[in-house]
Please model this.
Amino acid sequence: MKLIYEGKAKRLYETDQANEVLIEFKDDATAFNGAKKASFASKGKINKTLSVLLYKMLEKEGVPTHFLRDEGDVTIVARRVDIVKIELVVRNVVAGSLAKRTGLPEGHKLRQPIIETYYKDDALGDPMVTDEHIRELNLARPDELEKIKRSGLKVNQILTKFFAKAGLILVDFKLEYGRLLPSMHNIVLADEITPDTCRLWDEKTGAKMDKDRFRQDLGDLIEGYNEILTRVQHALES
Ligand code: ADP
Ligand code: MG
Model:
């Protein structure tokens, strides 16, 4: 299999179908733009499993995604897309850079969800960008950006409600979108939805169950990820 791209958390391979990719979830974790690195046995498998469950649920709720099928262990097959170089962050509760930027305390519940856009560029350190920066850099057409933001809010509604059923607060999360090849006319949700890309706090104790455990040395990362997976599986059954 030909490797197309190796990122921080996943590897992408070509398949015999030109418009498909194989995505392998790695055990590696990075934080602070790659400055902090570690590897956690079984993270790849947990993240793959969670991503698949969440993408299937979103598809059912009418959100088009890149997901095609689960290939077991740490791999999925997805539609190959031209990734929009924008990271869409949706926030419900103050944490991370929003606390720094605004002075609002961590844990402060936002009156309504906040959407932020970041330029997906490792060399620049993924800076926050405005609609006008996006227009100048030609990262997305205005109608594409509009679609992406609307979809992000819809995903937020679906996931917030779902995680609440699992006893988890969806604090914030990052989404990536892509243009379906070959026509590039349709935008779909791509990449991953995992505890690497979502902040999830225990509803009762406020304990951080996501990658902040690694960023802030808060204890066993895999314990948190496994707890999220178990609760998600129970919530799906109920
Ligand atoms: P990064 O270090 O850039 O975050 P990852 O380890 O997350 O990379 O690897 C996944 C890469 O593949 C990301 O750059 C993401 O934008 C891209 N990607 C995700 N889904 C698809 C897809 N369906 N088609 C093409 N590229 C994708
Ligand atoms: Mg990534």
Observations:
- The first strand starts at residue 3 and ends at 6.
- Residues 7-9 surround magnesium ion (ligand 2) (CB under 6 Å).
- The two ends are 39 Å apart (CA to CA).
